[in-house]
Specification:
Radius of gyration: 16 Å
Shape: globular
CATH architecture: 3-Layer(aba) Sandwich
Strand order of the largest sheet: 1-2-3-4-5
CATH class: Alpha Beta
Number of strands: 8
Largest sheet: 5 strands, antiparallel
Structural class: alpha+beta
Distance between the termini: 19 Å
Helix content: 25-40%
Number of domains: 1
Length: about 170
């Protein structure tokens, strides 16, 4: 199944991709399901050569409660943005959905032969920092964001850089 989603992601028919993804969540556990959103994550100016964004679906019936993105590449901008980004909408926070979503994309990270990824959080964002800690990330540094990168970091002046060693299959 994993080869199928990578093949579909590289295709040009986003309508078909969105339709097929909506029928069968790619990654799921007992609480949430992730569905490939079809959004193009590539951004050469930021050094993002490829990536995947998944909608986080929760509840019965399933409803979108946020997203998780995996960004591939290395660049000065990604140093501050991180390889993984997530957002859980305000009414659905406090249920561990971001942590679960990150864990659910582990098979994709393994398929892509990633040994570690960076997740960044604003120093004052305690829930996001807790997510990183619960994942087993190690705080590498609190980095000052240069003015040139603040716009892509939503105005943040500092970013906590967490490194997550991609665990081998259990």
């Amino acid at each position: 199944m994993q080869a199928a989603y990578i093949f579909l992601r590289q295709g040009e028919n986003n309508v078909l991709l969105s339709f097929l993804s909506s029928l069968r969540p790619m990654f799921k556990d007992g609480e949430i399901a992730l569905v490939l959103s079809g959004e193009d994550v590539r951004d050469p100016e930021l050094g993002i050569r490829d990536g995947y964004t998944f909608g986080i679906l929760a509840g019965r019936p399933r409803r979108r409660v946020g997203y998780v993105s995996l960004r591939l590449g290395e660049s000065p901008a990604l140093y501050y943005l991180g390889h993984i980004g997530y957002r859980v909408d305000a009414p659905y926070r406090g249920h561990g959905y971001a942590e679960r979503a990150c864990r659910l994309i582990l098979p994709l990270m393994r398929d892509l032969h990633l040994s570690s990824v960076c997740i960044t959080a604003n120093p004052e964002n305690t829930p996001s920092r807790r997510t990183c800690e619960n994942l087993g990330c190690v705080l590498e540094s609190v980095a000052a964001v240069p003015p040139a990168y603040r716009a892509v970091c939503a105005g943040a002046e500092y970013k906590c850089r967490y490194i997550w060693q991609v665990p081998r299959q259990a």
